[in-house]
Records
---
Amino acid sequence: MADLTTTYLGLKLKNPVIAGSSGLTNDIENLKRLEKFGAGAVVLKSIFEEQILIETDREVSAADLVSHSEAAGYLTTMTKEHSVYGYLELIEEAKKAVSIPVIASVNCLTSGEWTKFSKRIQEAGADALELNILITDYKNRDSKEIEKDYVRIVEKVKGIVDIPLALKVSTLFTNIPRMLTGLSSGADGLVLFNRYWSPDIDLDEMAVSSGNVYSSPEEITVPLRWIGLISNLVECDISATTGVHDGNGVIKLLLVGATTVQVCSALYLKGIEHIGDIVSRADAWLDAHGYASVKEIRGLLGPKSEEERRVFGRAQFMKYYTLKE
Ligand SMILES: Cc1cc2nc3c(=O)[nH]c(=O)nc-3n(C[C@H](O)[C@H](O)[C@H](O)COP(=O)(O)O)c2cc1C
């Protein structure tokens, strides 16, 4: 058996496979099972900035935060069902129930009042905090201004908590490497990439519905490409998410420079116990290829110079298209 131990956000993990944030990590029994089957760490389900504001600030109502009445109704119901104080309890209970690191998660849009609540998350015992940020203020501000908000959020929360901070972002930036290298100087980790909700249309019901909620293994090419391109440029750890469904996926992402990987859809589709299979198959790959530890393979295939990055980012693709002609 290879040495799978790794350090992520300064935390010691028994292996690099993390159960990513989702409804599955909102339940203590699931967290115990994730630990039992081999998860290296867990990221709890996110709470939303809006939930925090509604519950912690008496002046704020759902209608103040979202103009659409249906969205305000949803927000009010969700806040009643999942109280932020319940979230603090979840962190406390999780810390008692499992010995692997427990990472809390907030889905946020601003560096506003909600950020004070991050202190409570730390006090509840979270080992680290992951911020899931997707700012979609397309109408009122240009991209440069929106990008500055990401930096402001990191600076603000870093000034409030001492626990490590990871940032989960999507690919929705024009210049992904530049944006991510900038963010990496403030955060302890980048979680790449958030898979944003995709709409579909139900033609029978004539209504908007959810598109593919779960990822497919083919989607791994997105984190593979960008982590490969930036892993030698950023100053912090990288946790890969999207499209990891098996042990080979873990190995591929480590090879391009990820520190850890997060799995979610595969656990919904195949059950929580599947995380054990992912870990053991990654281990088997290392054994079969003569590597004694995950550290030995990290970044082996990631481009290390500007020239190699050009090859990785463009020449491969030119070669592929030329061959197809
Ligand atoms: C049902 C479901 C719920 C999710 N909830 C959250 C969440 O609360 N916070 C978050 O940061 N990501 C959430 N995600 C995103 C996952 O953590 C993960 O980043 C994404 O699904 C891509 O990884 P995968 O290909 O392994 O599914 C959710 C995903 C699914 C499918």
---
Amino acid sequence: MKKFEQPAEQSGDEGRGAKWNETVESYFEAADITNEAINFPAIVRGMGEVEGRTILDYGCGNGRFARKIEQMGAAKVIGVDKAPSMIDLARAADPDSRVEYQANPDNTLSFLPDGSIDKAMANLVFMMSPTKGEMQQAFKEIHRVLKEDGTFVYLITHPAFIERGAPDYRNEFDGPFNYFAEEKPYKFILKDSKGKEIDEDFYDYHYTLATYLNTAIQSGFSITGVEEVAYDDPAVVKKYKIPPEFQKFPQSFMVALKKPKVES
Ligand SMILES: C[S@@+](CC[C@H](N)C(=O)[O-])C[C@H]1O[C@@H](n2cnc3c(N)ncnc32)[C@H](O)[C@@H]1O
């Protein structure tokens, strides 16, 4: 396996963000089977009814799922991303869409009032947090803007199986994988629809399942459901021609949360 080399200028948050801003378009050239086939459906299951609701897509990227939620009948969809280049792509993607996009490079949701959102979702966002502190701040802000009884669903690459990759991506660690080494950057290598790797120096950061769950609990949320998201539906396996080795473990982990009512 090729030795992992993280360029010095990408070791911090700024470097990672800058690289992401430069290379976003190639990210969306990827095959992206796992998001389409199993991740987004799991988020939809976790969120429940969206019709008539105000929905926040946190870390919306180019807004593809925000626009799907709009098509599912949401009254209002707000797409937020820390990368301004993503927000530019999202705005340009569909001029007829009513999704409201906003960049949040400071990792706050200061433009949203307390208790203004019915449901929030975050697909594959928190593995991009370079520190636990940044992840905690994001959860606290999402908790603040949700209404009481509001739902927040987030999905991450399953950290226990992160080394095994998926049909459309693989992860490369610097040396032997240590599950307990947190805030550790690893290279995320996408494959295009022909299986060719798109090696653009994207980095994500490793956290344990306990950290992902405790961050939610310590931010004031109650866990209402979890799902180990896998290629376990024979129709999906057949449609996307998923090789047997990727049917034996979960690719992703979905967590459904509620902001509990404050007792008066
Ligand atoms: C892997 S992409 C996924 C994009 C989108 N959710 C999707 O599924 O197509 C992760 C996105 O999260 C954004 N992001 C990472 N950390 C964030 C944060 N703290 N606040 C807002 N956006 C963030 C990144 O800029 C990136 O666009």
